[in-house]
Amino acid sequence: MSLDQSQIVGEYVQQLITQHCVFVQFALRNSNKKGRQPNSHSELLHLVLRKMHWRVLMMVWRRKLYVMGCVTVLVVAAWGWATFSLIGTPTATDEGVKVLDGAHTESQGLWQRLTIFRRDPKPPLDAGVKFVKPTGNIPPKPQSESMMSKLDNLFSSKYVEKLRNLKVPDREDIAWRRKAIEQRAAADKQMYYDHELQRMGVPVIKGIGPDSGLVPPKQRLVHLDLKGAPPKIQYLKRIIPILKSLGATGLLLEYEDMFPYTGQIANIAARNAYAKNRLVDFLQTAKAAGLTVMPLVQTFGHMEFVLKLREYQEMRENPDSPQALCPSFNKSLLFVEEMLLQVINFHMKIDESPVLDDDAGTNSLRPHFRAIHIGCDEVYRMGECPRCRDKSKHELFLAHVSAVATRIKTRWPGLDVVIWDDMMRQIQVLDLQDFKLGELVQPMIWVYAEDVYRFVSPQTFDKYSMVFPTAWAASAFKGAHGETLLLPPSRRHLENTLKWLTVIQSENARFKGGIQGLALTGWQRYDHFAVLCELLPAALPSLAVSLATATLGYLEVNGHKNTILSAMSCPEKSAESLHRRPWLDFHQDPDMSFFAWCMFPGSALFRYSHRLLTTVAESRDYVENIKYKRGWLTDYNIKHNFTSPVRVAELVEHATKLKGSLITLAKNASDIMMDIYDKFTIEEFIEQRINPVVDELNGLLAAASRLNAIKVWPRRPLPYIRVITDIKSLTNSTKKKISSEMGIDQDTPSKSNLSVKLLADVFAEIDPHVQVESFEETQGSRRGDNYTAALFRIRVKGSVVPDGNTAKRSKWECSLICKRLPDSQARRDAYRSETLFRNEVHFYTKIVRELLSFQQRRTRESFSAIPRCYFARNDLLILEDLCAKEFCMPNRQEGLSLQQTESVLAELAHFHALSLAYKAEHRREFDLLTASIEEGIFAASNLEWFRNYYRHLTRNAVDMVSQSFQDAEDGRLYVQRLRDFVDTDEFFMRMVDLVRGSSELAVICHGDCWTNNFLYRYSADRKLVSGVCLVDFQLIRYGSPALDIANLIFCCTDHTLRKEHLPSLLKLYGQELAKALKKFGSYPSFCGSCEEELLEKIQEDFKKYARFGLGLAMDILPISTCSADQAPDLYVLPAEDATNLAPELNVPPNEICGRKMRDIVVDLVDNGWL
């Protein structure tokens, strides 16, 4: 049989099989109720019988079987008959063609025409075949015959007629039926997909599905908002492969103040801004992964990070709001240009190195940096300054955007400029076209809600398409549905992404260049001043689901096929578990807590966020229930000291447990977050998320403690406590009366920033029987005694009401010290007062508490040479007034005596021993304590800031020492050694190296051991020192104890004392240190095996760090030896406060200062330490 004949028969048999499949497909559609395919024909038949009435079905089924059986029998019979008819006695012919007997029979004509069998022209002679001449009755073979004509000829017999009577479908009917089957299968598949979405709790959106034909966005950018909680570079590098595997094509990087700006705008960068080399490393990693980078630089609105600073205040559109630039001020445009210049040039350099092109397989310069985003969203303050009042807001906006974009396009023609679209939604088409914005920028249309068209109508898309050749879209994966959320509402973000996919599909054709892509934004703050939103690791699962959906064009419902679980390193689920429950279930798990089983980067923080969310919610519900739903701890009960102690005890029983859980979570935060965030972010997170709840619980516990102490209550009715709602509406006499009751003088505002309420809250925790009524304040220090903070002595007045018994009321007074930041912002900036204040707050709130708690567990003898701290926050400290205990300050111009020096050294030794003992046993906790200490002065980042300051100091020191020697021959060596040490370009960095140098004996140092920071108490005859106290811990640092010793010895003592007693002083310090370590029961191995080895280590460290005392003396001696009239006054606002200036030394050198400086140089040089 020839190939053509086989093909004809095969096609016909295929027609019969197709007809059979139509019925089978019908059965399949009606049997597949639960989405499970039958395993066999018997099971299929069983399912069909269950679906339809069995008798009717069997009748139909039998008829079909009968027809199909007849057709099959006929085909087989025809095939067998035709084959049998070929067997006969052939005759030989001249042409050598073998034919059958009865050449004119029907069978011969049939197979002759089909030419299924051909005989060999030269068969073997022993085959028993006769050769005969061909007769003229054999019809000629058609030259060209179509398939259909062959079939017609084939089935022209009576058997063919019977087959036609069976209504076998033709080709067109088969094609139509095949198409119908495919459409029905697609509909069934979509129905199954929609059903799975409903099981998962995901909304069903028309046009979204595996076979919907929806084309995913060409570009898929992931937005990394670095202006709040900036992750460490190593963490960002770890998530790059995950983003790539989920389908990301690029990054949208919003730096704000985290970019390492330099030059004249260096001060707009945050103190913890990324280092350039680290940022280059991250960008190169992104480039190697094939991700493009689009930097986002705000150039109009959301400029708080710049306009909050004093030196840029003049660029504000509204003097009271740092939100937006004034677009009509020339300096604004120059500033924006400088920012863009630094950012663009920085990213341009990343593209200079070649990378491997995956498509070409060669090294090529693939565009890594294609576009710059210039922000321009939410510019709410426009047309308010005198320069802009005569112009419309639309004109101001378009002119500024046009000016910025034109400068970019002129300098970098190949760079695309992208802006947020919200400010253009209300601007008319003609206005947009007049400024030729379509040639300059590309709008990024952002909507984070589920209904995109509600905020951006189709008419707006139509307007944009008439102006812009192309556009971008933006959804969100976090930071869009609440300023204080811990976890993102992932279902809403997913629905937002799905809606955007349909919108892009619908609106893409409007634009000539189409819609470029979709940016998935993840905001970390709503603006510069807002608190933190969801952290990036906590939102990574939300990003994974939305990004994978944007990549596919639909959400994959099959748990075994989607790339999300594998990319997030999730454990594989069994088929049985996926059958019972979908892999994503928003009905029962709206926060996607099942991702807690995954091991993606930051998964520990994801799990921690879930625990914290549960505990905080429980605590807030508890507080709300206690204060507003129960009747014994309301504000009324607390104000009137009127409640039932039994009920109060029952109510606060759970508060202690909740408080303990929150404190544990706060401690765990550092361990979990330290690999992802810096210490500033960790502290901010704890302060915003945990501390407020702990404070609420503490308030309840303090109130409960005070109320439980009351044993006697007054008769009803209770006195009415008036609430002042609007103090402006009161008369002057009423104001004075109320102010007098509160202890506030209306004519003289409080300089200490205290209030009666604050003091009452402070003493409520100290002594619940005390009722604060008023206070008086005076200056707490004289001029020249203090430079980085303002001190006030507070005389608090009130009464003591024991057990709430007013009949036993007695007068009460207390003296406190209030320490706060200087009023002068210039002085704050000059001396880095805010950083120093944070150090001292950290010392009193964390370091002291931890060290003293450790001390109490080890020994009864305690280190108590520091004042008690009653209240601490970043701008205010309320401390114990040591003068009330007869402590006083020594004369700073005279310095310390031997007895005073020995007393201070002994207390310093005890303080340092406490650090060493705690470090030896709790090294991890100790490292966390020291990690939060900021170097106040000698940090490399302060080099430029203090350059002029220390240039002036060193010049004065050299001049004073030179004059004191009066050009004597023996003085040249000393002067030269001093010159070598204080070289302008090297001195500051030498001091930096000294404070961060490694030492086995490294401890938490006091850092500022000069005369005014020691308070002494004397015997009755004032001849003996009976006690000493250390104050002012703003310059604490982690370093060698020799730093404190050198500071004390060289800045507070004279030449004679050092010459006669320096060795004995060092020995005294070593003995006291060893004695204290033994009391703590912890003698670290790094301190040596005995007291002698410890003393040797101390002496070695002192030799190494002795010159540190000279560096400090150049700063301390001029102010410690000057008169009070020459010292600057912190309580007077300087005239230059309008500008932010580096510190200047305005204290003239004096004879005492020159002599002391000379003696220090001589001592150092003679001992070989300089």
Automatic annotation (TrEMBL):
CDD domains: GH20_GcnA-like. It holds the Pfam family EcKL. The keyword Signal applies. Keywords: Membrane, Signal, Transmembrane, Transmembrane helix. GO terms for molecular function: hexosaminidase activity. Residues 877-1079 form the CHK kinase-like domain. The keyword Protease does not apply. This is CHK kinase-like domain-containing protein. It comes from Lutzomyia longipalpis.
